[in-house]
């Protein structure tokens, strides 16, 4: 088994003296604790605790000071901390021996204190548990039990977290046979202090049992454990808030490789696997061993910073910690990239390296430990002609003369063969593909390679093969423009994945749509994907839609230009290239129109139709929009967004088909009134005509006939009862929203008060339409969701919502005070900054000024913003509310008191100033409040 921990790696001129200096104290500390220097005997327990606390504090302070002064890397600090902790354990053991007298020593079995787990490997994080095994030759006697108890209580009183077990050698082996976690801990076992012969005896027994049992059961158990861990902490290694220790590509995955190598060959360090004379005959190259070293060091450095910044054993790199850790590690802004984005890209590239190293080393360990592969045989003539063969029933490059370095196109052939024949690629072939991925650069512009790639992109399992090509490094060599987005994160709370992973997920959504798996949540896109003629253009546009992110400027415009370079290189026709470039340029058109514009305004639909011009392009654009949105993250898509996208599609499709000529406004108003009158035919004529005279043209064009009829009933009931406020709610399950209709006397600030009451009720407004009738009453409609992005449908919450609106309009509710009480956002989200911005647009609508505000979201934001708009004497006709994580993007269609657009620069400047004041965050950070649920368009 392993010797005591060595000095930390790296330059020792500045480090070793400090380590030696602290360890030189140990004999003096032991002498002082035990009284061996004099005749007074061991000190009292309280005195011992004080001495040990001071020593422990000195250890922790010296390691932290050296690490934060960058005298120690993360891995060196972890080893340093473990080595210094060894001295502490020796002192505690000596003091325990002195305090627990041995009545008849011969009757007690030998006893050894052993480090296991991470401590056994000789590495410790600042707030890691210390895992100990109290190892005995036979059953622990009374003195051994008292010693164990004494040591544990000392450690606990020192504030240390201790994982512990007391077992004999026989019990260790029995427990290891039943529990893989115990077996893994024993793989790391390292002698600390006590009877060395007991530990050596254990080492001999363990090594013999390890060889007899073989690698296969241990390997199967570790793979199962890893799969469960990945499922728990995020199977994608590219989550934007990664778990550094347990997530895919994290420290635990590297430790798994170490465990496998140690179990199979008894190696202590990964470099021992380099060279022809190493165990297994050279399983790692020098380059790969350096990559493992870099990954270990980088991840340990991140982990140390995480612990020190959080002041606890924090392993998840959340948004609030990312800028701090990145700055501590020296990542400053460079060019157009923020320091935190540079740091996270380095992290994700390291994670990718870990995944690649796992694919390289694990099968090599397995093969070396379990024996040579089954005899290779040619599969059939077609495989042989492609330069491929079978080994163990899995695909390999045909030996001995065909390999990936000589024929890089074999890397694509083997992927297509695996897909078409539903075969696995042999792990050794995967290893060879990773090692030779750089040869993919030779395939650029090569016709066969381009055809194979497009076939993989548009065929079955496209996302799977893209993910494989991305992880192995092939994709960024074959399409060099891809490299810029590998591991690229956007520091916001909207996007869940890095840009490359989001793109691959979007291609996966296309596959789901094609298989009909999303027919319930995206019925139109599921139907349209089977009707598109430009399938290759659709998939390529999805692959390239975010290719220009991180370059600065408009990523859609830059991406369109990149598409014009990439597509011809991949053998696409000029027509396909033009279509891909156009789709990339306009891939946000439908989502931005649906969520940020009034789709009841004919100009909105006509502007889209003018841009699209073609039913085929409209189909492609909608499918791409759905794929993009659903790939952003699990909480982005909901029924309300799906409804808006469908509405935009059908209205634009109708214009393109010539079925909607957009007649004059008066004609459309007359048609709407006639349709409503038909539904109210049973009413007395006077009542019917009274309602038909209430609405201005904008009202009649904003709703369908059935809604007009419901409004008529509501108005009639309100007038009959004489109540000042009438409120109705209607749950629309198909749209995942609740419709709230308010009929009350109109006055300035009405919208603001209602918005404030809805915020206090916990309802998030996703859309709103505001209408003043000819009788001076307001008929306002709000569509709201709950915090989870679903319909606000619980009866008691709806009742409370109604009561709060009534209290707000009557002045009984102190809105600002109540809004401040709303739950604040988690601390991890406060690090994401959103500069406030106000944009005026007098071209998007023929009849209204469009105001767009961007800022950090908070409860009561709409209350403040709409209050500012009303205070400027403007009337709000409709509001379109969207959130992208913590970013609010709210759009208002407004007119002045004369029913005209606001075009006077002086008025616009005054309005801008008022809105910027309203957008400013609360003065007291403790009163900043949480975000609304994400209701945004695609990224």
Automatic annotation (TrEMBL):
Top-level taxon of origin: Bacteria
Matches recorded under PROSITE patterns: ACT, HD
Region (Uridylyltransferase): 1-382
Alphabetical keyword list: Hydrolase, Magnesium, Multifunctional enzyme, Nucleotidyltransferase, Repeat, Transferase
Catalysed transformations (reactions): [protein-PII]-L-tyrosine + UTP = [protein-PII]-uridylyl-L-tyrosine + diphosphate; [protein-PII]-uridylyl-L-tyrosine + H2O = [protein-PII]-L-tyrosine + UMP + H(+)
Domain ACT as annotated: residue spans: 739-816, 850-934
Cofactor: Mg(2+)
Activity regulation behaviour: Uridylyltransferase (UTase) activity is inhibited by glutamine, while glutamine activates uridylyl-removing (UR) activity.
UniProt xrefs under InterPro entries: ACT-like_dom_sf, ACT_dom, HD/PDEase_dom, HD_domain, NT_sf, PII_UdlTrfase/GS_AdlTrfase, Polymerase_NTP_transf_dom, UTase/UR
UniProt xrefs under SUPFAM superfamilies: ACT-like (SSF55021), HD-domain/PDEase-like (SSF109604), Nucleotidyltransferase (SSF81301), Nucleotidyltransferase substrate binding subunit/domain (SSF81593)
Record carries keyword Nucleotide-binding: no
MF GO annotations: nucleotidyltransferase activity
EC number annotated for this UniProt entry: 2.7.7.59, 3.1.4.-
Domain HD: 499-621
Family membership: Belongs to the GlnD family.
Function, in words: Modifies, by uridylylation and deuridylylation, the PII regulatory proteins (GlnB and homologs), in response to the nitrogen status of the cell that GlnD senses through the glutamine level. Under low glutamine levels, catalyzes the conversion of the PII proteins and UTP to PII-UMP and PPi, while under higher glutamine levels, GlnD hydrolyzes PII-UMP to PII and UMP (deuridylylation). Thus, controls uridylylation state and activity of the PII proteins, and plays an important role in the regulation of nitrogen metabolism.
Free-text comment on this protein's domains from its UniProt entry: Has four distinct domains: an N-terminal nucleotidyltransferase (NT) domain responsible for UTase activity, a central HD domain that encodes UR activity, and two C-terminal ACT domains that seem to have a role in glutamine sensing.
NCBIfam families: PRK05092.1, UTase_glnD
Protein's recorded name: Bifunctional uridylyltransferase/uridylyl-removing enzyme
Organism: Craurococcus roseus
Primary gene name: glnD
């Amino acid at each position: 088994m392993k010797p005591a921990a060595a000095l930390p790696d790296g330059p020792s001129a500045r480090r070793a003296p400090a380590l030696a200096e602290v360890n030189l104290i140990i004999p003096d500390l032991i002498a002082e604790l035990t009284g061996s220097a004099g005749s007074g005997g061991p000190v009292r327990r309280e005195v011992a605790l004080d001495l040990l606390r001071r020593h422990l504090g000195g250890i922790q302070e010296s390691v932290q000071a050296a690490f934060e002064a960058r005298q120690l890397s993360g891995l060196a600090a972890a080893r340093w901390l473990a080595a210094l902790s060894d001295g502490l354990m020796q002192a505690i053991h000596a003091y325990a021996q002195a305090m627990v007298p041995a009545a008849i020593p011969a009757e007690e079995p030998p006893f050894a204190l052993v480090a296991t787990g991470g401590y056994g490997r000789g590495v410790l994080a600042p707030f890691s548990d210390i895992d100990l095994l109290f190892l005995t030759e036979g059953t622990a006697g009374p003195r051994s039990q008292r010693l164990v108890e004494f040591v544990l209580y000392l450690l606990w009183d020192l504030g240390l977290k201790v994982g512990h077990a007391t077992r004999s050698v026989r019990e260790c082996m029995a427990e290891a046979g039943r529990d893989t976690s115990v077996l893994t801990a024993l793989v790391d076992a390292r002698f600390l202090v006590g009877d060395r012969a007991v530990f050596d005896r254990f080492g001999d027994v363990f090594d013999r049992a390890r060889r007899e049992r073989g690698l296969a059961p241990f390997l199967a158990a570790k793979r199962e454990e890893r799969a469960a861990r990945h499922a728990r902490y995020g199977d994608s290694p590219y989550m934007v808030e990664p778990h550094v220790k347990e997530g895919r590509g994290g420290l635990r995955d590297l430790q798994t490789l170490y465990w496998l190598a140690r179990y199979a060959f008894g190696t202590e360090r990964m470099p021992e696997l380099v060279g022809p004379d190493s165990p297994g005959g050279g399983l790692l190259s020098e380059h790969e061993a350096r990559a493992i070293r870099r990954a270990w060091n980088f991840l340990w450095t991140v982990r140390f910073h995480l612990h020190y910044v959080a002041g606890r054993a924090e392993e998840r790199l959340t948004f609030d910690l990312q800028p701090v850790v990145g700055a501590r590690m020296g990542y400053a802004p460079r060019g157009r990239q923020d320091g935190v984005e540079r740091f996270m890209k380095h992290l994700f590239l390291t994670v990718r390296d870990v995944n690649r190293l796992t694919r390289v080393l694990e099968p090599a360990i397995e093969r070396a430990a379990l024996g040579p592969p089954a005899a290779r045989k040619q599969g059939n003539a077609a495989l042989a002609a492609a330069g491929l063969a079978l080994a163990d029933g899995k695909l390999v490059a045909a030996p001995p003369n065909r390999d990936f370095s000589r024929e890089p196109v074999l890397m694509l052939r083997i992927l297509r063969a695996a897909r078409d024949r539903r075969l696995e690629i042999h792990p050794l072939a995967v290893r060879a593909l990773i090692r030779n991925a750089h040869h993919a650069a030779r395939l650029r512009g090569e016709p066969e390679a381009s055809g194979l790639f497009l076939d993989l992109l548009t065929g079955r399992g496209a996302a799977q093969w893209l993910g494989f090509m991305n992880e192995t490094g092939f994709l960024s060599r074959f399409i060099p423009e891809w490299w810029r987005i590998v591991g690229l994160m956007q520091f916001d709370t909207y996007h869940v994945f890095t840009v490359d992973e989001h793109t691959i997920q979007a291609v996966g959504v296309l596959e789901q749509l094609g298989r009909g798996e999303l027919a319930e949540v995206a019925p139109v896109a599921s139907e349209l994907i089977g009707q598109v003629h430009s399938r290759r253009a659709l998939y390529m546009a999805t692959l390239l839609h975010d290719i220009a992110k991180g370059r600065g400027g408009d990523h859609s415009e830059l991406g369109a230009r990149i598409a014009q370079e990439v597509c011809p290189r991949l053998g696409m026709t000029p027509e396909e290239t033009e279509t891909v470039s156009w789709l990339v340029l306009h891939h946000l058109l439908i989502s931005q129109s649906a969520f940020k514009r009034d789709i009841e305004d004919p100009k909105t639909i006509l502007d889209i139709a003018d841009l699209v011009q073609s039913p085929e392009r409209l189909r492609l654009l909608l499918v791409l929009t759905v794929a993009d949105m659903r790939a952003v993250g699990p909480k982005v898509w909901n029924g309300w967004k799906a409804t808006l996208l469908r509405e935009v599609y059908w209205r634009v499709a109708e214009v393109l088909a010539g079925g909607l000529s957009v007649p004059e406004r008066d004609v459309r108003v007359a048609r709407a009134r006639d349709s409503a009158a038909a539904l109210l035919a049973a009413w007395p004529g006077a009542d019917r005509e009274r309602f038909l005279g209430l609405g201005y043209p904008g009202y009649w064009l904003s709703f369908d006939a059935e809604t007009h009829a419901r409004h008529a009933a509501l108005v009639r009931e309100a007038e009959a009862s004489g109540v000042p406020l009438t409120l109705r709610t209607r749950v629309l399950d198909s749209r995942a929203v609740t419709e709230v209709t308010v009929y009350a006397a109109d006055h300035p600030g009405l919208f603001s008060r209602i918005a404030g009451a809805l915020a206090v009720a916990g309802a998030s407004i996703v859309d709103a339409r505001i209408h003043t009738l000819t009788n001076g009453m307001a008929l306002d409609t709000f569509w709201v969701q709950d915090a989870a992005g679903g319909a606000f449908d619980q009866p008691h919450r709806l009742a409370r919502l109604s009561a709060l609106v009534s209290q707000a309009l009557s002045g009984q509710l102190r809105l600002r005070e109540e809004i401040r009480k709303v739950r604040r956002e988690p601390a991890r989200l406060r690090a994401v900054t959103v500069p406030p911005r106000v944009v005026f647009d007098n071209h998007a609508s023929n009849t209204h000024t469009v105001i767009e505000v961007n800022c950090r979201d908070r409860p009561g934001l709409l209350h403040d913003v709409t209050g500012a708009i009303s205070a400027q004497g403007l009337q709000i006709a409709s509001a379109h509310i969207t959130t992208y994580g913590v970013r609010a993007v709210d759009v208002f269609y407004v007119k002045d008191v004369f029913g005209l657009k606001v075009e006077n620069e002086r008025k616009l400047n005054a309005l801008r100033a008022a809105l910027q004041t309203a957008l400013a965050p609360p003065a007291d950070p403790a009163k900043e409040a949480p975000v609304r649920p994400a209701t945004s368009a695609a990224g």
